[in-house]
UniProtKB/TrEMBL annotation, chains A, B, C, D:
GO terms for molecular function: glutaminase activity. One of its GO terms (biological process) is L-glutamine catabolic process. Belongs to the glutaminase family. It catalyses: L-glutamine + H2O = L-glutamate + NH4(+). Its EC number is 3.5.1.2. It is an enzyme of class 3 (hydrolase). Coiled coil: none annotated. InterPro entries: Beta-lactam/transpept-like, Glutaminase. Keywords: Acetylation, Hydrolase. Substrate binds at S65, N115, E161, N168, Y192, Y240, V258. This is Glutaminase. Homotetramer.
């Protein structure tokens, strides 16, 4: 497989670099807005142990909402199914930062991958330990999954996020008012902003995703049943109100971040990371989504 | 596999018949309301060609919304991707018959499996031929898939549905007012009500589902790429606002009907049909959902 | 007062005819779409018994939603306060034909002046007699109020409305599905479309509005308390989602129709009718609203 | 009038004190929750200069949202009609603290009397001077209107409000994220919480309301045109989603507060203040609303 896969990655990199429309870099925080647009990376960690990549695969980027996957795994490991009393697992049909659904459903976010649900997930982690330890534990989880201790949190990004995060402050205060936040909004958000500011390269992210691949030799951080459930939530909710489209076009569980990264899992076979900072109208990486679609087609990778 | 599978079906049948809570039979049309509650059937058509079943697997039931899967396959076959200009493919986050999303999104239903989207799909089929021929063609599709010419449309159910279908009349008239219905509401709904009134046994439905299994020997009615896409929509949208939960618990693309049936696909391996007329709060078969979860666990069947 | 009033009307007519923007004629039914745009009329029936007018005050127009005022008076006369179990009396904050609020509030329209609420009001009238008699009674009410037996229903408009009334069919079927329509949707809507097709001149409409003026010599068709309540609903709900703006700018209870007419009441003093078929973005007569604002200012007429 | 009015107040006080259901004291902040339930006051300042009262008319209470009337008058005085670019003047059809409408309408609150609109109004006042001066100016406005320099802001209530105001923090942060807050959420809310914590007796509030009465001898703080407009907004929006009901039952412009107070205006004739801390389901004073209805009926006071 390795030659075919390496060739596919090289082809995709070459084809996509010829794109005339690279999307728009996220502008909601200055630290993301200044990332150069014309960058693209793709990396695959295979179940056989190989790591393949093309493009800017050693350039670090802010994983942003992809961190919600790791945080959810951690929260479920600590709190188990009682987390589901605080957050649902249904697609929301709304934008990532919508507050409408939250009001109609009295403070229970639809799923852990919209911002409100991710804030609740982080708040649940904080029920077991203080912020500093919680972040350390999350970072340890990610580093263990990626087998790479150099992965770090970009404090400048976290600070930028805090100073421009009014919509998240709105969500957290609303959750608190509904009785679905255990810690002060500032405290939970402080942790949440740092979690989103984890920085990785595409190669690191592909390696970190291996804990969901379910194959011998992969890091075993959660049970097989939980892997399946996490993948199910990624497939139905991982791309906000474009989740259905990603399932339709790519057919793999995935999670995108506003920094331009996407992590996708081929159960039993591979972990894929792509990155390109330009976003499409739904807030997902434009070239990243296209790369996922091409790779899935080229390798005949689909869960369906 | 056959012995293990047959044993699993028998076990599930035995266990679920001991249930104290069988849910509630749908009451919105008289023909469904009078179906006896305590019935259960499960059937599996395997890629190897076997057909296995347990329970009331030769009792006919109204497939209702499961017909949307066949109608969508037919509409895509005729109209191709231009159907997607009229209906989305995102989970709706709403109940099956909600009109709210339709108003906010100006008459474009979220996906083909909520009622509004299914009405548009049927309307698209009618663009190519009159109602009688359209229904004949749909029935031929289903009979070919199941290799069974005895499958029929229950006219009494269709008539009952028409005389109690005010909410569907609301949806169709709203779609028409938004310019997203090509035929008169009465005409499209007349066809839609008949489509929903297709009657099958669990064994017949399991056989009919084989066109989505993607394995040698299965009826080949649509392309491999389209199979994957249909399965993707089933996984993200097949159980209304409990789609995420079905993906989480069962991990298979499925489609439920208010008659108590559920069709699920194990790509490359099997087509599963369950039936029990009692519904849960989301309008999906209560025992049927539980049976799917048990069977998927017992056979280690999951796309994830 | 009479000279000053007559002068004010003449001035307003002269000023508004110099307008460069007359709004847009309603296009949703052909019969309204073909009404010539550049028409304007204003008429005032004073408590002293005078009738003053300017412009095209003898040209007939379709009163459309202004009929809801007469229908509500009639329904309250027959059913009394039990009507309020079926329809609220709060501003809706939504467009006149929105179905969203109806779904969230389970089939109870916000007030009798949005379409859904008016359909329920007409349906309530039909609880007491068949459509033909109900329409005759409504017409008698209007003719008595105006003291003019030549007022009639324009059947061509009613027919046009029926054949293009899909959104109203959506509302009526939705109401029926919620259990808040006693008659078949077709029957209630048939009556409703005829009610909306009542035709009057501005002079006739000003006279017809006198039953709400509460002064000696005015036609006494309803109690003083009910006059106040009807005026209250007109002020808070009479201009759909521009009701607050009309109260702010004009300060009088009023009701607009999509045919370009507006009826306003100066309690104890006068009934005002204006008409100009061009509508503004909210679906209210553009010049009509401006004329009301100018007249209220010129005569120092405001309830506040 | 004075004897008849004094008798009416005494009768209402006597009748309402016999009530078995006094509603529920607001519980959302501790300072309000501990106010004894069985209190009632009514006071009227007439255009002729009299001040009449009954019940606990010298007991101070927190005016809460009634302060929005004074703040709006002040903001309009400073900014004029440009305020309307930031906030609408339509009834919202929603609860006082809803965030749903705000998201659908991109951060423009429906009117200045729902919380979001009041926060914007306060923010506008702060555009002209710092918080301390803004509060001083508002207090001066109120004291001048009431001709009473002892009116004060209860700092304990303001502090309690701040520590329990998560929903208001959600609204303010949301407004900020939409670009419709000029100051930091904490700063605007700090001012807003103090404004709401103004304390008055019913007699003081009746006197303070005289600036809206429009009669010789009344304090003239704003223009006649602006009085009318403020009254129009009070009538259409003054009681949240029960505004239509208040207009229907009482027929006067009014504004309620969660502390149990209501201020109503009889244009040209009187300013009425009632207070009873128990609220009804809509968050308006239960006995207060009843008292207003009885007084309006007894004195034949209605704008309609």
């Amino acid at each position: 497989m390795s030659d075919r896969l390496q060739q596919a990655l090289a082809d995709i990199d070459a084809e996509l670099r010829a794109s005339t429309d690279w999307g728009q870099v996220a502008t909601y925080i200055p630290e993301l807005a200044r990332v150069p647009l014309h960058q693209f990376a793709i990396a695959v960690a295979s179940a056989e142990g190989g790591l393949y990549s093309a493009g800017d695969a050693d350039t670090g980027f802010s994983i942003q909402s992809i961190s919600k996957v790791f945080a959810l795994a951690l929260a479920l490991g600590r709190s188990g199914d009682q987390l589901w009393a605080r957050v649902g697992r249904e697609p929301s049909g709304s934008a990532f930062n919508s507050i409408v659904q939250l009001e109609y459903e009295r403070g229970i976010p639809r799923n852990p991958f919209i911002n409100a649900g991710a804030i609740v997930t982080t708040d649940e982690i904080l029920a077991h330990r203080p912020p500093r330890e919680a972040l350390a534990e999350l970072l340890t989880f990610v580093r263990t999954a990626a087998d790479d201790d150099t992965i770090f949190i970009n404090d400048a990004v976290a600070a930028s996020e805090r100073s421009h995060g009014h919509r998240n402050f709105a969500l957290a205060n609303f959750l608190y008012a509904c009785g679905n936040l255990k810690n002060a909004p500032e405290l939970t958000l402080g942790t949440y902003f740092h979690q989103c500011a984890i920085e990785m390269t595409a190669r690191q992210l592909a390696l970190a995703g291996r804990f969901l691949v379910a194959a011998p030799g992969m890091p075993r951080l959660i049970s097989r049943a939980r892997m399946r459930r996490l993948c199910a939530i990624m497939l139905t909710c991982g791309h906000y109100d474009a989740s259905g489209d990603f399932a339709f076009r790519v057919g793999l569980p995935g999670k995108s971040g506003v920094g331009g990264g996407i992590l996708a899992i081929v159960p039993g076979r591979a972990s894929i990371a792509v990155w390109s900072p330009g976003l499409n109208a739904n807030g997902n990486s434009k070239l990243g989504t296209e790369a996922m679609e091409r790779l899935a087609a080229a390798m005949d990778w689909s869960v369906f």
